[in-house]
Amino acid sequence: MQRRWPRLRGPLEHWLLLGGATGLLALQLLGMGVQRHWWTRTQLLNFRTYSAAGLQPGMTVKISGFPVGRVQQIRLLNDAQVQVTLAIAANRLPMVGRSSRATLAQDGLLSTPYIAISPDLNDLGNRRPLASGDTLIYEAGPDISTLIKELAASRVPLQQMLTRAGTLMEKRLPRSLDQLDRTLSSGEQLATVAQRELTDNTGALKTQLSQTTSDVEQTLSSLQATLAEIHRLASSTNTLLRSIQGSWLLKLLEPAPATAPAAPCPGAEPCAD
C-alpha cells in the first residue's frame, strides 16, 4: 500500500511558496544584473548632439563590437542640444581617450542600433584616463530614411541612363562588329599576300645567292691561276738576274777606280822622282 505524505497546511505552506517565488525572482534579477552589468562598477561619459533620433535609454554601448556599457540617460538642454549619458564599465574606460568618437551604429537594417565608441590606442597604458563625466565627440551617422529617399530619387536617372546605354549598344555594337570582321578579313588577306611575296622573294634570293657563290668560286680559281703564273715569272726573273750578275759584260760596264793625287813635297825643294 502506497504511503501518502501528509499535506502541509497553514502558514508554513504559504511561507514556502513565498520563499520559492522570492528565490526565483532573485535569480532572475541576478541574471538580468549580470547581463546588464548592474553589479559592475561603471563610470559616466557624456556626449552632445543636435538630434536624439535613434537614441534611447538602455541602448548598448560597444567598443570594437564588444559590449562595455549602456545609455543611462538622455535629456534636452536649454540650448536645444541633447545630452546623452553613457555608463561604461570602469575596467574598459582606459581604452577610451581624447581622440575617441561616439557614433550611432547598426549592423544591419533589421538589427538593433547601438552606440559605438572608437578606441584610442595612442600611448595606451601611459596616458591619464578620462574622468567620470567627461564629454566625448559625437559623429552623427547617415540617416537610413534619407539614404533610402536619395536612392529612390537616383533610381529614375539611373534607369534612364541604362536605357540609353542599351539603345546605344544595340545601334553601335552590330556596326562595330561588322567593321571588326572586315578589318580581320583585310588583315588575313594582307598576311597571305605578304607570305606569298616572302616565299617568292626567298626563292629569287636563293637563286641570286647561288649565282653569286658560283661567280666568287670562278674568280677565286682565276686568281689562284694568276698567282701561280706570277710565281713562275718571279722565279724566271730571279734566274735571269743571277746569270746577268755573273757575266763578263757586266764587269766591262763597271767604271774604273779613281787614282789618288800625290802628296806635296815639304818645303820649297822640288820632289825627286
Structure, briefly:
The chain has 273 residues and is α/β, with parallel strands linked by helices.
Describe the structure.
The chain is an alpha/beta fold. Among the domains are: 36-141; 142-210. 48% of the residues lie in helices and 16% in strands. It contains three helices and seven strands. The chain has a seven-stranded mixed beta barrel. A hairpin with a 5-residue loop joins strand 3 and strand 4. The longest helix has 102 residues, at 144-245.
Keywords for this entry:
single chain, 273 residues, alpha/beta, seven-stranded mixed barrel, elongated
Distance between the termini: 204 Å
**Rough outline:** elongated
Estimated radius of gyration: 61 Å
Estimate the strand proportion. Answer: 15-25%
Major beta sheet summary: 7 strands, mixed, barrel
Strand order of the largest sheet: 1-4-3-2-6-5-7
Number of strands: 7
SS-based structural class? Answer: alpha/beta
- The residue fraction in helices comes out at 40-55%
Mean pLDDT over the full residue set: 78
- Return residue spans where pLDDT drops below 50 for at least 5 consecutive residues: none
Helix and strand succession? HEEEEEEEHH
Oligomer: single chain
Q: Number of DSSP helices? A: 3
Question: What does the secondary structure layout of this molecule look like, with pairings?
Answer:
Blueprint: H1 11-35, E1 42-49, E2 60-63, E3 66-76, E4 82-89, E5 101-105, E6 114-117, E7 135-139, H2 144-245, H3 248-252
Parallel strand pairs: 1-7, 2-6, 5-7
Antiparallel strand pairs: 1-4, 2-3, 3-4, 5-6
